[in-house]
Amino acid sequence: MLKPLTRRSSQTDSHPHSIVVAGFNDDNLLDIAVANAGSDNIGILLAYGNNTFASQFSYSTGSGSNPYSLTVGDFNNDHRMDIAVANFGTHNVGIFLGLGNGFFTRQTTFSTGPSRPRAITVGDFNSDNKLDIAVANYGTSNIGVLLGLGNGTFSNQTTFSTGYDSLPLSIAVGDFNNDNKLDIAVVNNVTNNVGIFLGHGNGSFEDQMTFTTGIKSQPYSIALADLNNDTHLDITVSNFNTHNVGVFLGHRDGSFEKPTLYSTGNKSYPVSVAISDFNNDNKLDIVVANSQTNNIGLFFGYGNGTFATQVTYSVLTGFNLHSIVADDFNNDNILDIVIASYATNDVNVFFGSFNSTFSDQVQYSTGDYSQPSSVVIDDFNNDDKLDIAVANRNSSNLGIFLGYGDGSFSTQMTYSTGSNSNPRSITVGDFNGDGLLDIAVANEGYGNVGVFLQYRNGTFMPQKSYSNEWYPASFSVASCDFDNDGRLDIAVANRYIDEITILFGDGDGNFSHGLISAIYSEYRPFSITVGDFNNDDRFDIAVANELYWDTNNVGVFLNYGNRTFSGQISNPTEFGSYPRAVTVGDFNNDGKLDIAVANFQKPTIGIFIGNGDGTFSNQVVYAIGGKANPISLTACDFNNDSRLDIVVANSGVSNVAVFLGKGKGIFSSPLYYSTGNNSQPYSVATG
User: Which of 222, 214, 223 minimizes the C-alpha distance to 243?
Assistant: First the structure.
């Protein structure tokens, strides 16, 4: 995972375009250099070693230079890091020689002709142990090679064509054909390909070979590594216009397979890409900066050249991410990420930590057009393996998937809830005291609660229903012992009649009817949960009330212990938020229950910290982003740090978001996991 970012301004209208990481002052800490295209300079940010950086000091690259890319190397063999920059506006390469104390000489320039150099890299292309420079010349559609003389100066540029109007944007160096001679790779933005120049070892290169990145893909950035452990370099590119990254597996002769594509998300427009091992499993991963969705995408590698579905880490809206680099800034042996934010004129560092990620999803069918609306996880057949129960709203049945204990499940067994009953919500408990888990569902279509008593081995008897006696309204259910008689009861949120019903259990699987008529008119309770909010050893009730803009709240009903409850205590959510799911947990580890709510319309999650007396602090919100429409959430400790985390099902963008708890009731920015295109997840559970 990634911890919240550290931000450093690159100065007003600086428009940082490229970043490089190196040690500039011999303190064994990694520093940052940035090319500021808007302010015509490079900026240096020296590390303090405590996850912070000094304010930027800058070196001019010349008026109108528009520096677009930079790289580092020891160009004069004094064992100090120097900087080379591609000046797009003034058609030259600028060299800043390092003094070893974090300071640099003034720029010396070397012409690249009327070329508009867009990207720059280094390597020893003529095998003389002196660093040379290669640039991608956007304006003249070629690459330029400037051979180093070993004293910080360079020969005149030699050019190699990338093809008519190819407009190369990014460049990288590696040995693609295992001949111990450096080769060059470029991405050609307009001709939609990767170009390979095999080196002769004397500073010259063969003509370009090209490998397509896909029609109208507009490749933007390139990174190299051996992704499948076959000792051959592979290529990863970010495809700006088709919203994916492409992985080209390399052969020993310098050729490559057709790319495998991995989506970065709709309208993400990925720009910069990098490769490293982010989860310390000795398998290389891919990280990409998604410029228009304001997130970082991580593709965790399997070690065979294939990758998991993207996990995203949000940054603040409006960043327009442009360049990304990975390294360990705080010497904790965990990779961190630094990004340049073109629009906000910032350099941002995300510090890495272990390890709250999830594998790709495995799907199990609930039936065509079944529309599963609620899910719970428990051990129904007492085999110490978790099973799944699901309420299938459109097919009007209860589905059971028995677990095998290895993460896989049986095919679904179904139990009818009645034609057009439309079960909306599900809860579990031992309702008849036989030591077997039973199930209750809220049947929206009939306005009743259906109880399925377990027969044995995870099979269930036919439903027995309990009417609400009024207009069909049953929407959400929860179970616990409300009257402390040792028998489980059921609470029902009746959305359309604005009431809560309590069905009191007799311990034999039968229920009697009770009512709390305390939800004010037109509050429309959507979701219900239970917890002891005032530490009196009695279960209280919380509901998410949504409909009209002036009545969006979380309602709390305190249990008096005699089958009666207090009137509703309202805790406002955001104006027009439409809260649709509620869950409880101790999010700040103070021994008092707190409440989390999914605000469907904003979209956000809201946290209400409990005071231990049935009252709560004002809501603190965490953005989910986009048109997520969060509709279900639950709490669990996913990373074993003794702090509760929250997972949310986002029906509008077909993913789940995980908010990792940081303690004190505070949460990190969300991690996103796709549930599949147009899957519209409706319920989430953990186990």
Answer: 214
Question: Over the stretch 321-337, which tens digit does the pLDDT of each residue have?
Answer: 767 877 776 677 777 77
Residue 56 contacts residue 379 (beta carbons within 8 Å): no
Structure-token match 């303090």, residue found:
48
Residues 6 or more apart from 325 whose CB is under 8 A from it?
A: 19, 20, 21, 274, 337, 338, 339
Answering whether pTM is above 0.70, one says: no
Cα–Cα distance between 93 and 121 in angstroms, integer?
11
**What one-letter code names the amino acid at 375?**
V
CA distances from 345 to 12, 84, 89, 156, 319 (A): 6, 21, 19, 34, 8
Name residue 114's amino acid: P
Report the b/e string of 337-353 with b at 16+ CB within 10 A.
bbbbbbebbbbbbbbbe
Residue with the two structure tokens 């990925």:
270
Q: Per DSSP, what are the bridge partners of residue 503?
A: 490, 513
Q: How many CB atoms are closer than 10 A to CB 432?
A: 19
For residue 640, what are the contacts with CB-CB under 8 A and spacing of at least 6?
A: none
Tokens describing residue 353: 């930590």
Of the candidates 99, 25, 18, 93, the one whose C-alpha atom is nearest the C-alpha of residue 61 is 93
Mind listing the pLDDT tens digit for each residue in 476-535? 899 999 999 999 999 998 887 778 888 899 999 999 876 554 444 357 888 899 999 999
Between β-strands 193-197 and 540-545, what pairing exists: parallel, antiparallel or unpaired? Answer: unpaired
**Which amino acid is located at 557 in the chain?**
F
